[in-house]
Amino acid sequence: MKKILEFVKEHHLLSISTCKDNLPHSANCFYAFDKKKFNFIIASDISTRHIKELHVNPNFSATIALETTEIGKIRGLQFSGIIKKATTIEKALYIKNFPYALALNPTLWTLHVEHLKFTDNRLGFGKKLIYKREEKGAKLTPL
After folding, report:
1. Which of 27, 55, 96, 102 is paired with 125 by a 20 to 30 Å CA distance?
2. pTM (2 d.p.)
3. What are the structural domains of the chain?
4. Rounded to an integer, what distance in angstroms lies between the CA atom of residue 102 and that of residue 84?
5. What is the C-alpha to C-alpha distance for residues 134 and 115, in angstroms, rounded to an integer?
């Protein structure tokens, strides 16, 4: 889990994907990370296609990737779950990370991670760490 937390901390942009009427859509979003609950907080207006689609189907998938052409340095995170409006505490965490966002009065959302796969070729070619959220509680457990 330590390697995943380090990776998430090194980045600030994720790509979220939705699907409605069998038509996929992706968008890039800045994120703040709640390491206690293992959730991501994003800002996105209610009028965006991905948020409209997430109102119909709250299930999402997302990725965070390191851009590299060196096979041995490939690292990336793939995760999925459901989206909900951010709580007051989650909003404060986002504003702490992106204080300039306060002036924009953004609509904030929380990506509740249910399943996560981390690829880190530095640990061995094709090495993957896979986690799934426990039924009760915020903890992700290895599979």
Report:
1. 27
2. 0.88
3. 2-142 (2.30.110.10)
4. 20
5. 10
